[in-house]
Amino acid sequence: MNIPRPVTLLCAALPLLGCVSVATAAKPAASAAAPTFEQWRETEHRGSDDLLTAGLGLDGLRAAAAPAFASPAQPTAEEARRRAIWSSWRGIADLTPGAGFGDVYGNLQATPGREFSAYARIPGARQPHRVLVQVPDNFDPAKRCLVAAASSGSRGIYGAISVAGSWGLAHGCAVAYTDKGTGSDYYDLDARSGFQPDGTPATQGALAFAPSDAKATHGIAFKHAHSGDNPEADWGQHLLQALQFGLQALDRAYPQSAPFTPANTRTLGAGVSNGGGAVLRAAEIEGDWFDAMVAGEPNVSVAGAPPLYDFVTQSALLMPCALLALDDLPQPPVQAQAAPAWTQRCAVLKSAGLVQGDDTAAQAQSARQQLADAGLSDGALRAGAFSTGFDLWRAIAVTYASAYGRYGAGEHPCAYSYSAVGADGKPVPASAELRASWWSEGSGIPPGSGVVLVDGNAAQSAEDPLRGLNCLRALGLGDSADAKRVRAGIADAAAKAPRRGLPIVVIHGTDDGLVPISMTSDRYVPLARKAGAQIAYWRVSNGQHFDSLLAFPDYRKRYVPLLPYMFAAMDQVWDHLEDPAHALPQDALIQPTPRAEAPLQRAQLSIPTVSGH
User: Fold this and answer.
1) What is the pLDDT of residues 425-476, one digit of tens each?
2) Of 271, 185, 184, the residue nearest 236 (C-alpha)
3) Single pTM value for the model
4) CA–CA separation, 162 and 298 (whole Å)
5) 184, 273, 419, 521: which is the annotated catalytic residue?
6) Between vectors from CA 496 to CA 492 and to CA 498, what angle results, nearest 5°?
7) Is-contact 515 272, C-beta < 8 A?
């Protein structure tokens, strides 16, 4: 699922321990066909342009304004990269004063080094995905280690930098990233313009995404929705290819120490949200590619259980009404402002026969009960108010339906498309200045960054206001050709059990309102255990999905960040890999205390400890 940057959404809505010697007992050799990587680039990042913050440091990352482009329509590669790193940090981590990042947990220390990047391609895929490796100058080939991560949400190539980059670079490890076939490589169908390997806009050349058979000639296409590849089905392979690219990049960086292989290099997979889902999908792959995995709030569906798409479309319909049955919702959105529209939704649902009750209170309780019957707790429903207030459920459903069905631009069965928008709210061609910002700032799922979701059902909305939402829901439940096509894509993305003996830690907030724990990790962990997996499960009370939302006072009074538990789990797993006397993490139901307005203290997090620590 996608992780928004709250400031952007509000504006739109309102006008690793140090790397140490690799164990002498070598892993069995991992084998798989080595992919071919195209458009290799190597760049140096030192002095005022480091690997971790692009020279911005904490103060620069906290800045509300994006790093400027000297020429707004033609950023340099360095400018595009700096803004992409700024956007990626702000979209995932809570960097506000007192929040603890860089002090209580995490690392923001400037890290000089090199980057290697390229395009990779899953066999049979129409479009490539980006891979990138950061190699710090303090990397020690005698203590070789590599962290592989997939972006959270549908973000671009730096979408896991605040997790894997912060941990791995601080411990002298190389860090390999993949955008896992999603990302911010938007394509302007009017201008026939996309993005080059360096993140700058162009109309020709080796573009990262260019739809080959778009049925639309106007508007905007983006990789997750319009590649025709159903990337979620291959997230595990994307992460494996990132790891393989990391090993090849280290061969280039240290030819005198080559080859770097899974047998002689300590490897760790890590990620959150969709990146956590990619970690668990990679855990299925046979071969000792990874020494351990850490997955936070993973978007993972299990065969035989209702998929997350079912929950998303049900939430898009019912949650605006259901939230009226709960008091004391977190803000934003401002409940008083949202209540009229939510009340109207209850009435529309009643007219359509989707809820019961003669008044708004009864209708809201009917909607709430349906979501509870699907497995959603009241805590998760409360946290889901953010996604409801900013129409994320519909945005997610539109993108995933397009991806699951492998539809190109202009082919969405529910008549949705994407466009820039003018001052009058009507679709218009995008300006060159707007296009230039997408690669750096796009979340990978519009709306956002000047791109809006266009509802082709709007003309019929007066007679059938739920037409578009009902269409999206029917794609997951109906018997039409389009529904069967979408459901086939959903089935392809279901997780399987991990390989035996691979240490895994799964971390999830009990109040996650976007990727509910009851519908994902609570189903995956028993599946993995039944197959003999070596898995620890940390459930975090007062934990919701978006650490970045803790920048809002009402959220930090209620919730704790999830990233500290990611860092702690990676530390504990890494210690065990180096010295088995350090125990692996064990199951834990964690009871932390939100910081409210006081600076975060580590003791408030109640991070589990293991013997040897």
Assistant:
1) 889 999 999 999 999 999 999 999 999 999 998 877 778 899 999 999 999 9
2) 271
3) 0.94
4) 16
5) 273
6) 145
7) no
